Amino acid sequence: MAPTTSRALPLGLWLSSLAVATPIAQLAGGVDAVLALSPLRCPLMLLAGMPCPTCGLGHALVHAWTFDLSQAWAHHPLGALLLPLSGGLCALWMVGPGRVRGLGRALDMHVLRSPVALLVGVLAYVTWGIARFG
Q1: Is residue 119 part of a domain?
Q2: Confidence grade of residue 20 (pLDDT, cut at 50, 70, 90)
Q3: What is the pTM of this model?
């Protein structure tokens, strides 16, 4: 495969998945029917009966992929935001894979290896869960 083709592949796959998501969901009987087939379940909900801060994210992503953004937002606000973010990363990869790798390295160096950043991230995650579910 030529370099330009391989660079365009992620964006092509992302766009193709958007094009087929709604028809597939309609053929299956709706988004809820598709979600009922998913084996993914929240481990914290299964084990302790309580939701985690990311509960609903999978449902939100499926709704976002079928352009039902109001339902995506209702399940989890991050789901509706991840759709354009993933497309943007695919487009950035097409422009230059090194830029995406650079973002990953910067994230690793400045966030994942910083105890303060990790603590802030964990506190934000827990605060989000408490605010969302009371």
Answers
A1: no
A2: very high
A3: 0.76
